[in-house]
């Protein structure tokens, strides 16, 4: 209790802009090691190879219809008064190839998706034809002229041979898997999931299983962060909480920095007697990158580096912790997964209600998006104090409110950062 | 090859509207069995219990600042000329409770997040105070009047006791986990993942490992569908392809309908000789629900039921297969996970480019959303033929183009269905 006013400045805190802090961190976010996995296991992993088409797609002239493969020239004289009859010389089911050729006066029965035979240059829909037996042959009757190329998907219609289909860093989902399977990529090279250690600090924290005790609260941030790490593409490791003891905290965090790809802590970064992470990042144990960001919530958000590994010391306030992860940790994880767009997608929306708080720092307000009549509205959460956790679950974006001396009125254009995996 | 025009109507196909088909299916989509899992394992699972707050949150008066807990009344005479000195009788770190009471003329040192002691009704920021030792006591000096309640988060500020926080069917992500942890829910009751069997049909299909063969294509739909099943919350089981043999297909699909919660097939539903699923759903093996939908792509989309289990026979065209899953199978999976909003979220956007195709059926066009200056634009994919797979990966919405005889011009308001897990 010997604290004096001098202590308030003990961190020598100089606020950085969010983008400046992101730039500092980006020096450490590099694509990580890769591994090969089966295509079936690749959902939500991140591609570590460039996918080029080994062949055009489709790679043969593909029938778009059930019907008859014909020479368009043979149909030039057709009309409902003048049926042209062609000899049906073969049939081509899907997956089979005819060894015959469509010559003048002939046609082949063909199925949707089958390879159009040599000589044919159009497919007539089955519904447009008649069939008959004539002098021992099966014949198809056509009543209408057809253009060359009709109902045939040409070679390379979707993809040319050698075309780059996907770049490294791409998240693999249904559409990507469809492409990989179509081109025979049954073993996919993906980035390994970065292993992220998570600590909470503070002896006020109960584990989630413990009964309540006076004055204490349950540790919720580590579980929340683990979920955020998973959603961002990493593998979370929840480690035992760091108590309010600097030597112990140092030992635990230093060890984690050796063993994992990055370390997140929550809590212990505010100005105060027991703000242990603040003390830690000012020690000679690590090199501090920043310990104040010009933002709300989470201005105390801190980062440091040791042997090229990042320590993210996030605020212990749930709202600030959530935002700090999305702005700083998620991009790092995305960078190790090869992403060239590691930051949250930014859109411009219309503020649906007045936002009355004013601040010298940029605010990242939890909110919900809604599109009505072509206008994208951003609806701020009712309570967005940094300490509030209950509104995180209802948010699908962060509304960016620049420093303001007056309220931001409804109807203002605001930037919104889209939260991934959100309940849109 | 004895097919006649009569065969074209052999399915007696009567197109249903999408919403009508969804209504028919909804009779079979009921919340499924539940299981208990650890909170740490609950990311992206679906809650099967109502979560009510067992206590208010915060459940004690919480200090929002590092500073001193005081009686506001004691500060009424403060000014920079007239410093009021209070005896500091205790300190309250986070997680601890003082057994003393703040009485007139006294104060307590308190940390952010700590429980405000009895008798105190405001917290003064550390930065606003001075400290001194006076006659053996530690004293804090205040220069400014403070209002009652200042820097104290009241009990129940976020949540009242008994308040319903989350309903069954909610997808558990970071925000939900934060709530569950805060209220000590370390074992979560979730819906079991529905087990979905996936078959492809057609002897034209190579497995993804096989070398190319003339006329054949690789099976990509089953892998794509497996990814869609995962994203929707189910557990996919890729079964051996069903060849073009009705008896074999019947046996395989019937067995799968017994063993799994639902069965998806892709392919074999168009009009044609080898369209085996068409034959299957018209057999007495299952009861057909519908075999034509008034939509593009995927008008041949079919569904049937056997012993209360659904068979979704989707188109073999990748684009149509993808859309059929999102419109019909995903809602079923979501219903078994307790969701009361099982369908894709619908927004209204502005069409960014002319859409030139016309059709008697509603089109679900793959597209991309973009928000510029507060306007939400929907950009249709360049090629969206039902057979095309390459544009699925770049889509984050389906643009709904109603039946039209003329092109839909740029600037039109269009409904868009938001694809989950999309690359926004």
From TrEMBL, chains A, B:
Origin: domain of life: Bacteria
InterPro entries linked to this entry: MoaB/Mog-like_dom_sf, MoaB/Mog_dom, MoeA-like, MoeA_C_domain_IV, MoeA_C_domain_IV_sf, MoeA_linker/N, MoeA_linker/N_sf
Alphabetical list of SMART domains matching this protein: MoCF_biosynth
Domain MoaB/Mog residue range list: 197-335
Listed GO CC annotations: cytosol
Isomerase is among the record's keywords: no
GO annotation, biological process: Mo-molybdopterin cofactor biosynthetic process
The protein's name in its UniProt record: Molybdopterin molybdenumtransferase
Organism: Paenibacillus azoreducens
Gene: moeA
């Amino acid at each position: 209790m010997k604290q004096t006013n001098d202590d308030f400045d003990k961190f020598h805190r100089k606020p950085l802009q969010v983008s400046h802090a992101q730039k500092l961190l980006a020096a450490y976010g590099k694509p990580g090691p890769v591994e090969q996995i089966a295509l079936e296991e690749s959902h939500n992993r991140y591609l570590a190879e460039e996918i080029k088409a080994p062949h055009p797609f489709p790679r043969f002239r593909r029938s778009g219809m059930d019907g008859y493969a014909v020479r368009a020239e043979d149909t030039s004289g057709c009309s409902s008064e003048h049926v042209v009859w062609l000899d049906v010389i073969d049939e081509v089911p899907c997956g089979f190839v005819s060894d015959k050729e469509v010559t003048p006066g002939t046609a082949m029965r063909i199925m949707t998706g089958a390879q159009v035979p040599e000589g044919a240059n159009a497919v007539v829909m089955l519904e447009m034809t008649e069939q008959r037996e004539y002098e021992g042959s099966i014949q198809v009757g056509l009543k209408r002229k057809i253009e060359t190329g009709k109902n045939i998907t040409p070679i390379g219609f979707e993809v040319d041979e050698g075309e780059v289909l996907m770049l490294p860093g791409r998240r693999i989902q249904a559409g990507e898997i469809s492409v990989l399977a179509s081109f025979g990529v049954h073993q996919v090279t993906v980035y390994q999931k970065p292993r992220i250690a998570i600590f909470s600090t503070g002896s006020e924290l109960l584990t989630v299983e413990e009964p309540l005790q006076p004055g204490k609260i349950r540790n919720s941030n580590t579980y929340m962060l683990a979920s955020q790490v998973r959603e961002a593409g990493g593998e979370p490791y929840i480690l035992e909480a760091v108590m309010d003891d600097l030597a112990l905290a140092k030992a635990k965090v230093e060890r984690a920095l050796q063993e994992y790809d990055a370390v997140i802590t929550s809590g212990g970064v505010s100005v105060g007697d027991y703000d242990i992470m603040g003390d830690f990042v000012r020690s000679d144990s690590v090199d501090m990158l920043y310990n104040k960001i010009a933002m709300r919530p989470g201005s105390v958000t801190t980062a440091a580096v040791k042997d090229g590994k990042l320590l993210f010391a996030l605020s212990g306030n749930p709202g600030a912790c959530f935002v700090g992860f999305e702005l700083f940790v998620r991009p790092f994880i995305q960078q190790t997964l090869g992403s060239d767009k590691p930051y949250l997608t930014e859109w411009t929306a219309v503020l649906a209600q007045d936002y009355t708080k004013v601040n010298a720092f940029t605010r990242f307000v939890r909110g919900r998006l809604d599109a009505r009549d072509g206008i994208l509205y951003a609806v701020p959460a009712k309570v967005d104090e940094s300490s509030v956790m209950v509104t995180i679950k209802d948010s699908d974006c962060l509304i960016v409110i620049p420093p303001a001396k007056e309220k931001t009125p409804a109807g203002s254009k605001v930037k919104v950062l889209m939260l991934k995996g959100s309940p849109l």
